[in-house]
Amino acid sequence: MSNAPNDNSRIIRNLYTCFQQLDADGMKSCYHDQAQFTDPVFPFLSGDKIGFMWMMLVQTLQKNPGDWKLVFTDVQATAHEGSCTWEATYTFTLTGRRVHNCIRAQFQFQDGKIIRHTDQFDFYRWSRMAFGITGTLLGWMSWFQKKVQRISAHRLAAFQSKHPAKK
């Protein structure tokens, strides 16, 4: 099935509109069953782990929805790939610190869904906001990023084990 560029733009817009509205199921519906996701905190997720990641993040944000803001711009798409810029403002729950993260997203599409999603952001900038002095002193070190990735993977696995799979 081929997808027109406007259809892929709609998929991107739908993904981030659902995220603005804290609708994890709507976000999950944008992804192909064999999708892959990567960003500096979750370096490789595939399949249903992507939906669980969004569900975990959304449930955390729903505890204080007035604290959450997402803006997306510059949505572009062709028949096979797309991109956009998005900014998220929230309180990082592990430290209680305010974060304003600027992300560049790139997508590939297959069968009318996202098959590959890559988010890029400055981990050091994010870690300074999220972890304060610890992030300032250590956030530029690769072992610190790997530690954050391990903690995030552990939290996702624990979350997934407590929630039955939704199809």
Give a structural overview.
With 167 residues, the protein is α+β, with helices and mostly antiparallel strands. It has a single domain (5-162), classed as Roll (Nuclear Transport Factor 2, Chain: A), CATH 3.10.450. It is built from 6 helices and 6 strands. It has helices at 5-20, 24-28, 48-62, 123-131, 133-138, 142-162, and strands at residues 31-38, 45-46, 69-77, 81-92, 97-110, 113-120. Strands 2-1-6-5-4-3 form a 6-stranded mixed beta sheet. A hairpin with a 4-residue loop joins strand 4 (81-92) and strand 5 (97-110). 25% of the residues are buried.
What value does the Rg take, in angstroms? Answer: 16 Å
CATH architecture: Roll
**CATH class annotation:** Alpha Beta
- Physical arrangement of strands within the biggest beta sheet: 2-1-6-5-4-3
Order of helices and strands: HHEEHEEEEHHH
Q: N- to C-terminal separation?
A: 22 Å
Beta-strand percent range: 25-35%
